[in-house]
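Board notes (copied after class):
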Amino acid sequence: MYTLIIILGIVLFIVLVLALIAPKNYHVYRSIELNHPTSKVWEHIKYLEKQTQWSPWSRKDPNMEQKIIGTDGTVGAVSYWNGNKEVGEGEQEITKIVEGKRVEQDLRFLKPYKSESECYMDLIELGPNKSKLTWGFAGQNKFPMSIMMLFMNMDKMVGKDFEQGLQNLKAQLQGE
C-alpha cells in the first residue's frame, strides 16, 4: 500500500511539473506577397464563401457539408462545416472587419476534439498592384492538451495548411 502511494505521488508530481512547463499559448501565421491590388484580394478574404474556394481543408474533403449562416461578409456571419477525419466538424464566425485591411474570426472546432482559436487575416498594400496577406490564428492550450503540446508542434501541424491555402489563393487570383 505504501509503495502504491509513493508511485501515485511521483506520477502526480510529474504531471504537475509537465503542466507548469507546457506551452500555454500558440500563435501560427504565414504571409504571402501577391501581385494584385488589395481591393481584389479583399474580396477573397472578407467573404466566408470565397474563403472556402481556396481553403486547403475544402480540398481535403470536397464532399464535406458546408453552410453559411447569416449575411456573408458581415460581423456575425458563420461558416459551418462537417467533414471527414482530416477536417472534422466546426465553425468560424466573423467577429470584426476593418474594411479593406483586416478580418477577425472565432474558430470553433467541435470534432475530433473541442477547441477555440482566434483567426485573422491582415491585408497590407505594398504598391498599386502588390499586396501582402498574413493569415494566422492564436489560442490557449488548456490542460491536459497543454501537456500534449510539449510533444507536438502547432506551427508544423497547421503552418503547412496555411501555406497551401495562401498558394491556392494566389493561383485563384492569377486565374481571374
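Comment from the instructor: The chain has one domain: 24-175. The two ends are 73 Å apart (CA to CA).
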